[in-house]
Amino acid sequence: MRELPIVRTIADLRAQVAAWRRADLRVGFVPTMGALHEGHLSLVRLARTRADRVVASVFVNPTQFGPNEDFDAYPRDEARDAGLLESAGCHLLYAPSVAEMYPPGASTTVTVAGVSEPLDGQARPGHFAGVATVVTKLLNQCAPDVAVFGEKDFQQLAVIRRLVRDLDLAVEIVGGPTARADDGLALSSRNAYLSEAERPVAARLNAVLREVLAKVRAGEPVAAAEQAAVAALLAAGFRKVDYVEARVPETLERLGPGPASGPLRVLGAAHLGRTRLIDNLGD
Hints:
Order of helices and strands: EHEHEHEHHHEHEHHHEEE
Largest sheet: 6 strands, parallel
Number of helices: 10
Distance between the termini: 41 Å
Structural class: alpha/beta
């Protein structure tokens, strides 16, 4: 097996992408923070169906972590990540340093109003400004034809779709389905924080979101279904629930408090031990 080529500078990334473009090849891009799992690899494989060459980035972005979050503890293993990307058919790994991404004096931030404000926008202040800024930079650096993001981070995907639209970026954004364990738990790099005892409890988040979706579709008031879900998660052993809410998929506007019809997405975030889990689903 050949080793996956790795570039660490914007100049080297652009040089490789330019060479592919001269060969009339379509370029796909999958941004990640590393600690890769099957969910990430499914996005690489999806990108391969949309492009001739696929770039994946590994960059643990400091600007999207809050002061009391897990930036320092976030798992990092570039060699393992590179091997997994190679096995999934990736053609190039872009692994910039913090200094490459944020040179001294960098002072520009991208803020996406509206869709970034509820849910994780409230639970993690400043998070989406960090996400929007780094994604804008990565898309400008790579200039891909298509970029693939996971639907597990549904609000993040909505923010990225909006910024690409509003800033007229010439890239197609594709959402990849959430990869799950057999018991429904959404795959996440942070699942590594779960203890053996916490792991089966974690799957309750997905089950409870499914219950909310079923109740709302059956005509139960949205607020009642959401409140029951929070109580169920706390009873299951989650120590804190940031939110469980039914929202309009495209805009993430609030539904309820009464019965609701039309497209909806149920999103949840809850803390189990030291692990913060998120999930979402729709129909």
